[in-house]
Amino acid sequence: MSENTPAALPTVVIGAGPVGLAAAAHLLQRGLEFMVLEAGPTAGAAVREWAHVRLFSTWGEVVDPAAERLLAPAGWVRPDPATYPSGGDWAEQYLQPLADVLGDRVRTGARVTGVSRTGRDRIVDADREAQPFVVHVAHADGREERLFARAVIDASGTWATPSPAGGSGLPALGEKAAADRITYRVPDLSDPAVRARYAGKRTAVIGSGASAFTALAYLADLATSDDGAGTKGVWILRRGISGSTFGGGEADQLPARGALGLAAKKAVDDGHADAVTGFRTEAIERAADGRLVLVGEDGRRLDAVDEAIVLTGFRPDLSFLDELRLGLDERLQAPVALAPLIDPNQHSCGTVYPHGHRELSHPEQGVYLVGMKSYGRAPTFLAMTGYEQVRSVAAAITGDFEAADRVELTLPETGVCGGAGLFDTPDAAEADGGGCCAPAPQLVQLAAPAEQTPAGGAGAG
Predict the structure, then answer these.
(1) C-alpha span between 434 and 452 (Å, rounded)
(2) Is residue 323 predicted with pLDDT exceeding 70?
């Protein structure tokens, strides 16, 4: 077989996060050549950005089976499967050892800037599927490289592309200019410098999901601390407050998620946060003292705030895939066949049926979006689901469609969701069980900040 034919070329995996490294483990298990391209300086670079976060998911739910088999000969032993890792634990105790075993096939500081078919732009049909993929890479040292691949697995996630504050899905006017006072992550208030930024300040929290609940709870906790007197949250909601605003509370099938809502409700009830409803941000202006004034689409102008925390979700970066023929749902930006299964209006983490290569396929055969990126703008991703995705995709690349079509993932009856929690200690997490059928959630004291992230942790893609 010629070395230039697609079948003789490696598979390129984009992203060395949990799902990207799992894809590599499955490809290796099947004897396929591959390379993993990671834009960050280390494996699990995105996960390391939320090292302080403790997951809803236990160790037993965030380790891929093929990866564990690969690690075992190196003496790796999975931590207690019933305990809950932080993002730092996940990166240092699992992702980095896995990358080490995979060796130089994992390339860091390698950002993918474009993917196409060799000699064929998006328009050209002639002999298209016979051409290998061409992948353009920009290295951290400034070098550029062109690689060829038989298949491309994009596990780059969505962590780097948070959604903006603007109520129409676009950045609010002035949002970029106000970047020095805006963050798009729940701050790590255990960091003294970060803590000082919010202590005694008035902070807008824009968003209505679990991340916003978390931010409100942390600001409330700061307000009651010795160094946080005067801390105030302003919760910006695009809709009004209803019975579902704070989530399911004690009725939530995911106790930790329910606890987030209860903590946010307590922050409001105790006067540590004020809610502004029906407000869609049109502009962010500077007051004379440098603080920020939020202006709504209806003309309302809010009292100035010192800081803004924008937690309006994530979206996939599709820019470097523009020369490929992708079949994406017009709303979620997820693969067309997958989108109905993950619509957040219909499904939570545990009600998404395990799926594989067929739901992830595109008109451009041989390219797969997996992990968080496969979910587009839907927030319901599970790390376990991502592992099942790449197991199926690796089998399909080898032509083993019997294995690719077989479902090898068994979720609990109503699922177990990942993401950050309000667990104070691993023991508290174990008491709740972390599953949908666990006892009702209880408010717990926040000992250290943790942010709500996509299931299985941010950057689980």
Answers:
(1) 15
(2) yes
- The pLDDT tens digits for 156-211 are 999 999 999 999 999 999 999 999 999 999 899 999 999 999 999 999 999 988 78
Tokens of 91: 């990166």
**257: nearest Cα among 352, 387, 159, 349:** 349
Residue 276, C-beta contacts closer than 8 angstroms, at least 6 positions apart: 234, 235, 236, 237, 302
pLDDT at residue 208 in the model:
86
Q: What are phi and psi of 62, to 5 degrees?
A: -120, 15
Are 90 and 62 a contacting pair, CB within 8 Å? yes
For tokens 């490809």, name the residue: 27
pLDDT for res 350: 54
Q: Model confidence at 408, in pLDDT bands (50, 70, 90)?
A: confident
Query: Is residue 239 very low, low, confident or very high in pLDDT (cuts 50, 70, 90)?
Result: confident
CA distances from 400 to 47, 133, 393 (A): 32, 21, 10
The phi and psi torsions of 296 (rounded to 5 degrees) equal -90, 165
This prediction has a pTM of: 0.85
Question: Which tens digit of pLDDT belongs to each residue from 206-231?
Answer: 998 878 888 999 999 999 999 999 99
Q: What are phi and psi of 19, to 5 degrees?
A: -80, -35
C-alpha distances (whole Å) from 346 to each of 172, 349, 380 are 29, 10, 11
| CA 120 – CA 311 distance, rounded (Å) | 39
Percentages helix, strand, coil for the chain (3-state, rounded to 5) are 30, 20, 50
Backbone angles phi, psi at 395, to 5 degrees: -65, -40
Give φ, ψ of 302 to 5 degrees: -90, 155
Residues contacting residue 279 through CB under 8 Å, at least 6 positions apart: 167, 236, 237, 238, 294, 296, 298, 300, 302
Nearest to 220 by CA among 194, 198, 242, 191: 198
**Mutual orientation of helices 383-398 and 18-29 as an angle, nearest 10°?**
30
Amino acid at 439: P
Residue 439 per-residue DSSP state: P
- Does the pLDDT value for residue 437 go beyond 90? no
Give the phi and the psi of residue 286 in degrees, each rounded to 5.
-95, 130
| DSSP state at residue 81 | T
Helices 255-269/210-223 angle, 10° precision: 50
Residues forming a β-bridge with 139: 110
For the four alpha carbons of 312, 162, 260 and 385, in that order, the dihedral sign comes to positive
Q: How crowded is the C-beta side of 452, counted as CA atoms within 13 Å?
A: 29
